[in-house]
Amino acid sequence: MSFFDLSLDWANRIYAWGWRSSVVGAVITALGVGLLMWGTRVRDRDFEEQVAVLHEKSAAAEERSKILDLAVAAANERAAHAGLRTAELTLALEQEQTKRASRKLTDEQKNLLIKALTGRVEPLSIIARDEDEPRQYADQFINSLREANLLDVQVPYILTISPVDNWTGIRLYIPRLMAPEAFGDDPLVKAFTAAGIPITGISSGSQSGVVLDPKLTLPRRTIYIGHKPLPD
Predict the structure, then answer these.
(1) Which of 55, 112, 128, 219 has its CA 20 to 30 A from that of 143?
(2) pLDDT-derived band of residue 4, with 50, 70 and 90 as boundaries?
(3) 123: which residues sit within 8 A by CB, 6+ positions away?
(4) pTM given for the model
(5) H helix or E strand, kind and range, residue 82
């Protein structure tokens, strides 16, 4: 008896079981497909919601970044203004300190002056503003010129300059005229230039106006050195 040799009754039973099984399988398959579709839809919706949340967070972060960039730019601008203001105040302070600082001849400048001038120019006189700092500055020249035997008198002339005269440097009076084109060959000019002492001007002629010593009305040339602005 072979495997397929069944009675009709058993064949009908097997067919019925198979048909029922296929129906149940189809229902289970349909149910499974439905469950898959339902679950997929829920997962997709959750994914879309998460993506939307991420987009919102990204947009908010980008907005915060823009606000921070603006804040940083504003802070940088304020810092730049503050730095500029600080630089201006520092420069003003340095200028004011320079105005108020006492002028000094270095030892090197003194030695250069004495070496360059000894025995090479005629005696001269010094005039300075009658205030402490200008007179102290003049004293340094006096000591150097005295060592070079160039002072006209034992104590040089220190005259009171009118308050309207803002000259704070030193006037060197030499009792001899010189043509303007020869100023560059003046030993005094060469000596001060070599020592790094600025010469503001040179003139040649007679003193005009009221003076404190008649000797200074004689024809002479004048060298102006060492001026600095008066403090405010």
Answers:
(1) 219
(2) low
(3) 149, 150, 151, 152, 175
(4) 0.49
(5) helix 8-100
